Predict the 3D structure of the following.
Amino acid sequence: MYNFLKTNIMDKDAIEDLKNHYSQIGLNKTNLDPDPLNQFKSWFKDAVNANLFEPGATCLSTATKEGQPSARTVLLKGVDKRGFLFFSNYESRKAQELGQNPRAALVVAWIELGRQICISGKVSRISKDESTKYFHTRPIGSQLSAWASPQSKVINNRHILEKQRLKIEKKFHGGKIPLPPFWGGYCLTPVTVEFWQSRPNRLHDRLRYKRLINNEWIIERLAP
Ligand SMILES: Cc1cc2nc3c(=O)[nH]c(=O)nc-3n(C[C@H](O)[C@H](O)[C@H](O)COP(=O)(O)O)c2cc1C
């Protein structure tokens, strides 16, 4: 237990140094990539290099057509020129809300590095082929659980879930597990992407990319 704590404290020091370094440099239009997706990738690399736990953990906010929001954590699984990719159950609460209202937001907070990225845009499903490819990279246990869990539905007890999982395991019995028809990927195409960097005395930097009608990006500074 003591060693565990000690290791954490040492790592914490190194991360604190990194945070201070970023905080000294700060953000300005000249040290940002003109494309927010490239800028995201660069910060993501920093988070991975800092050995942060689950750097892809992201808060996804959706809303019903009446505007009632809901939020939950998902794991970002890719960023490319289309936008930000994540995977889920297509019958879940988030999926139902995205079906009614594709506008959504993501927040990635790397608190240890004093960084946050807030993204807004519209979400669409990715192709079945792409979802299938990703599905088969997941551990077998996760593939089976995706089949077994009616995500977001009320269930009477955990036993039902475990029974269902065993049933599915028997059904596919060592063979290749197909993509469930109710499971797949989403892509959030960004309209705004804001990079927040902590600075001394809480006079932080906020630089927001906004997509123009011609798909070019402008960068604006916001007050912290
Ligand atoms: C660290 C973490 C990562 C998660 N990643 C995902 C994910 O990638 N996809 C997903 O559907 N749910 C993920 N979840 C579960 C969701 O937060 C949520 O419980 C689930 O998607 C149901 O949400 P909904 O009922 O609002 O649709 C994750 C939860 C945590 C804590």
User: Anything to note?
Assistant: The chain has two domains: 2-135+187-221, 137-178.
